[in-house]
């Protein structure tokens, strides 16, 4: 098996872009099934296997125990649809066209992972939250999935209600790819109202939750976090239900499973942020017949690496459009190095924003191109009890430095953090003599990446469509979108193939 993995890795690198799209490069019988479990709005450290002692995730923890737990896995956007679109195309958000921003479509000429797999002989299914669209006209829509299922049933609106049936009812004569995407844990919380103690166990107690230093430790915030933890546990339950189904079908060993989330938890200083609380993701890989080196991996990876990994393992051609790299070398040796840099974007998500981040070694550098605006989080977070507690403490002048950052304006243009020494990224090292060379290097790498991938900072980008203090919709008549451009659109970034530094 190890020899096959190494061979397929070489084959994928050698033939990328040389064979017609969708041509199979391996015998169907040797190709793994693939399931991507993608949670909605769950931070990396809210799974038990990543050290959270309060949130219960026994099924995901078990996959990590017998697979690979990536400790340096990063998203390209801490925003729902841009993140998912980036994963499905293997491209950075600004290289997907308008899809760099929330609720906007991927440019129609770009291939999607499930479409390539389908053309190479896979059965493809999507169940749960979709949230990805294309600019193709209705009568020209490509078929990416053989099955598209909303994943909801009476009493379960979490998106995972049909995962087991989709797994059970699939065709048995071909390998399968399933994109299982939950709505858990997106606000507003519905798991509390739909809780089934016989399936999920008892609800989480507010007294047990872990309150980060940038939130207020009060009853309202603790209950908010407890309800969020309930959604995390419900997601875990359905991951486990699918795994048990695969075991009964005797196909678990030949199924490559990834577990991750699209962005950080929907709380202040998390979702939409470039900091780890928003942009770092849990990433579990499980494939008994294909992963030779199990355990914890410190190899730095980006979620744009998932599509090339899956396609190479499947023996399918990796399109030239994909900017990621295969992780199969890490499956053979979990200490293998596949990239030096991981890049992330903060674009419009309810509020005007333009920021870029690069991670290298133990450092995160952030450059903010809209310093006059706060990074208070998306509108659903602004409407949350946790944010209301912060607002009350702000008005009473009782915020600590970490909490003040939620409202900070103007923000620094450059932020630099050692995230090993400072896991919450609270101490900005930018401008300090001891980190001068690191800052200079990462600023140059970020500039080079933006240039090579066609990124840009348009003078006018999408404006606020929600009130920053209340989270309420701003009437459309009060929002001026004249002359708005999305990042990279002026440079036709959706046609750029260059991946930038890796």
TrEMBL record:
Q: Which residues lie in Basic and acidic residues bias regions?
A: 453-472
Residues annotated as domain Sulfatase N-terminal: 32-316
Protein name, as recorded: Arylsulfatase
Q: What class of enzyme is it?
A: hydrolase
Alphabetical list of Pfam families matching this protein: Sulfatase
User: Is Coiled coil one of the keywords UniProt gives this record?
Assistant: no
Q: Region Disordered: start and end of each range?
A: 453-502
Keywords assigned by UniProt, alphabetized: Calcium, Hydrolase, Metal-binding
Molecular function terms from GO: arylsulfatase activity; metal ion binding
Tell me its family: Belongs to the sulfatase family.
Which species does the entry assign this protein to? Stieleria varia
Any keyword Disulfide bond?
A: no
What Enzyme Commission number(s) apply to this enzyme? Answer: 3.1.6.1
């Amino acid at each position: 098996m190890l020899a096959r993995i190494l061979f397929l890795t070489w084959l994928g690198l050698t033939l990328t872009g040389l064979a017609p799209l969708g041509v199979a490069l391996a015998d169907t019988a040797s190709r793994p099934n693939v399931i991507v479990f993608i949670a909605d709005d769950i931070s990396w450290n809210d799974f038990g296997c990543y050290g959270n002692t309060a949130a219960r995730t026994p099924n995901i923890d078990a996959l990590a125990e017998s697979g690979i737990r990536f400790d340096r896995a990063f998203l390209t956007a801490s925003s729902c649809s841009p993140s998912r679109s980036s994963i499905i195309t293997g491209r950075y958000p600004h290289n997907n066209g308008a899809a760099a921003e929330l609720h906007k479509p991927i440019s129609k000429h770009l291939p999607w992972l499930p479409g390539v797999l389908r053309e190479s002989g896979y059965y493809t299914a999507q169940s749960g939250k979709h949230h990805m669209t294309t600019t193709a006209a209705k009568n020209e829509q490509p078929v990416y999935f053989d099955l598209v299922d909303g994943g909801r049933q009476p009493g379960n609106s979490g998106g995972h209600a049909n995962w087991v049936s989709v797994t059970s009812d699939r065709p048995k004569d071909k390998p399968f790819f399933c994109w299982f995407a939950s709505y858990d844990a997106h606000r507003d919380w519905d798991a509390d109202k739909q809780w089934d103690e016989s399936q999920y166990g008892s609800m989480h107690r507010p007294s047990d939750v872990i309150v980060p230093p940038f939130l207020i430790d009060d009853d309202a915030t603790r209950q908010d976090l407890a309800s969020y933890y309930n959604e995390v546990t419900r997601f875990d339950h359905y991951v486990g239900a699918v795994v048990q189904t695969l075991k009964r079908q005797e196909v678990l060993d030949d199924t490559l499973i990834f577990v991750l989330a699209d962005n950080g938890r929907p709380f202040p200083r998390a979702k939409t942020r470039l900091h780890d609380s928003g942009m770092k993701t849990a990433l579990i890989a499980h494939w008994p017949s294909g992963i030779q080196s199990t355990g914890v991996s410190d190899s730095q990876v980006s979620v744009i690496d998932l599509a090339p990994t899956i396609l190479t393992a499947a023996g399918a051609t990796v399109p030239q459009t994909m900017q990621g790299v295969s992780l199969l070398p890490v499956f053979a040796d979990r200490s293998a190095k596949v990239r030096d840099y991981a890049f992330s974007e903060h674009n419009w998500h309810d509020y005007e924003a333009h920021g870029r981040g690069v991670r290298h070694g133990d450092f995160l550098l952030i450059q903010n191109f809209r310093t006059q605006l706060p990074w208070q989080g998306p509108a659903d977070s602004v409407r949350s009890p946790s944010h209301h507690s912060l607002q009350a403490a702000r008005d009473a002048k009782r915020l600590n430095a970490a909490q003040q950052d939620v409202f900070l304006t103007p923000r620094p243009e450059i932020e630099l953090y050692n995230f090993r020494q400072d896991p919450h990224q609270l101490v900005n090292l930018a401008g300090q003599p001891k980190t001068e060379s690191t800052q200079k290097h990462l600023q140059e790498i970020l500039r080079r990446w933006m240039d090579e991938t066609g990124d840009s900072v348009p003078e006018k980008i999408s404006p606020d469509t929600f009130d920053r203090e209340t989270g309420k919709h701003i009437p459309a008549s009060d929002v001026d979108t004249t002359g708005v451009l999305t990042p990279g659109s002026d440079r036709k970034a959706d046609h750029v193939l260059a991946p930038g530094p890796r």
